[in-house]
Amino acid sequence: MRTYVALLYSITLGEGRRVVMSDLKAMAEGLGLKNVRTLLATGNLVFESEKISVAGLEERLESAFEQTFGRHVDIIVRAAGDWRKLASGNPFPSESVEAGDQVVVRVMRKPVTEDAISGFQAYAAADEKVLLVSGDIWIVFSRERPSSRLLAAANHKRMGIGTSRNWNTVRKLAEMVAQ
How far is C-alpha 71 from the geometric centre of its chain's CA atoms? Predict the structure, then answer.
């Protein structure tokens, strides 16, 4: 058995309707996934499965989600070792200690290229930072501005399928897969 992390993109089902984590857990268990755990109410799963391709897990989870909840949601899966590598590769350690909710990684299904990230960096304010690490996009958001141009620029059309998690969540998920 191998441990995996699954991240759901935007799990709002409609006005005032969110996915209940116990229902999400039951859906994953219905696929035969073992030791299924959730973190927060934002679509974070940790589970164990027989060795299978990450793409196969993503496809199975997305299909089950659509059947269970009535809408498609992109789901990004990483093996536990890959998740620990992502967390240990945080290029903003001091900012993460000071404001873990302002440091975010956009976890990508397919790695982003240097060419794509250079155009994206143009949307950063003077007090924001953007770095590409192993195909994922790390961002330090401004504490001074309530909204960032980076949020709109990091869409699926421009960057590809991905979903963002702040440092606090990344760290907690890394702790969960280390157990």
Answer: 19
The number of beta carbons lying within 10 Å of the beta carbon of residue 102 is 19
Q: How far apart are CA 131 and CA 124, in angstroms?
A: 11
d(CA 141, CA 130): 9
- Whole-number percent of the chain with pLDDT over 90: 59
pTM of the model: 0.90
Euclidean distance between CA atoms 58 and 163, whole angstroms: 13
Structure tokens at 132: 């590409």
Q: Which of 84, 6, 86 is nearest to 48 (CA)?
A: 6
DSSP summary character for residue 125: -
The yes-or-no verdict on residue 157 having pLDDT over 80 is: no
- For 54-64, what is each residue's pLDDT tens digit? 999 999 999 99
**Contact criterion met (CB below 8 Å) for 78 and 49:** no
Q: Cα torsion at 125, 126, 131, 136 (round to 10°)?
A: -20
